[in-house]
Amino acid sequence: MTDSTSTGANGSAGSGGGPALSPANQAVVQLTRKDFVSDQDVRWCPGCGDYSILAQTQKVMPDFGYPRENIVFVSGIGCSGRLPYYMNTYGFHTIHGRAPTLATGLKAARPDLMVWVITGDGDALSIGGNHVLHSMRRNVDIKLIMFNNRIYGLTKGQASPTSELGKVTKSTPAGTIDNPIMPLSVALAAEATFIARSVDTHTEHLQDTLTRAGWHKGSAFVEVLQNCNIFNDGAWRSFTDREVRDDRMLVLEHGKPMIFGKNHDKGIRLRGMHPEVVELGNGVSEEDLLVHDETAEDPYLAFMLSRMFYPDFPVPVGVIRRVERAAHDQLMVEQIASATAQRGEGDLAKLLNSGETWTVA
Question: Cβ–Cβ contacts within 10 Å for residue 288, how many?
Answer without folding.
Answer: 13
